[in-house]
Design goal:
The chain is built from 10 helices and 15 strands. The protein is of the alpha/beta class. The protein has one domain: L-arginine/glycine Amidinotransferase, Chain A (5-stranded Propeller). Strand 1, helix 1 and strand 2 form a beta-alpha-beta unit. Pfam families: DDAH_eukar (PF19420).
Amino acid sequence: MRAASAQAPGAVVLIRPHHFRPNPQTAADNTFQSTADHDVSREAYDACTRVAESLREVGVRVHLFEDETTTHPDSVFPNNWFSTHAGGRVAVYPMYAENRRSERRADIIEMLKTEYRVQEVIDYSGLEPDDLFLEGTGAMVLDHVSRIAYAVRSKRCDPVLVERFCTVFGYEPVVFDAVDPDGVPIYHTNVMMCIGSDVALIGLDAVVGDTRRAEVAHRIRETGRTLIALSAEQVAAFAGNAIEVRGRDGERILVISETGHRSLTAEQLSILSASCRVLPIDVAPIELAGGSVRCMIAGIHLDPR
């Protein structure tokens, strides 16, 4: 069995939505988002339940919170408004869409303080009136082992805030531009990139500029990881929106949506399977909102009390 890694959290937060729908305020810059032709709230509720049950079955500790409000269409994506870090630190982030800002929940922060060793909560949300935004581990893909923060510039990821976060939390910033085949900027780094313990998935062709593309690939490889380059079609299928977690007896598990899993080649799956167990879960209703299973999972990198 592969050894447990600091990259893979053994506990997570999920928020189960009761009134999910694609968010009209995020549609303008999220080309991954689709319009639902019917009310998908029940289907989304069931999809979140599937994720919680699947993670618990493999030994991940799941803190499942309910969102019964009708005003938070994207509350199923808590990784955008908070992140947790070794050493007892929690970050709270400024959100681009106004109707997402009230997703931040004091009860979740209090749960973290009660169940885990939290030394400090650093809240950047007060920067919203200054139009400075950094949407958590959607905007940044964090290498917790080599201490690197990969970040695609966008309306939701201000490079100045990336630098500030990295200075405080001890990461090296690797900021770059990335676009889809139509030249539209990628809205969140975690839809095109996933860092696991041994393997990294990235839509390499989306990175703008031959030199910068080579630099990003080199930075990933020099951490010792195998790089799996995803095609534009695989990125669009959410193959990059995956997360490695730690299950029972330290087993490393790559959680990916069934949509993303179906898009991978046999060779890519073979490389992944040599590193960790691959766990595909059907979250198709959630993907209408332009995010997938990784967006749904807020990893807990804190020591339990």
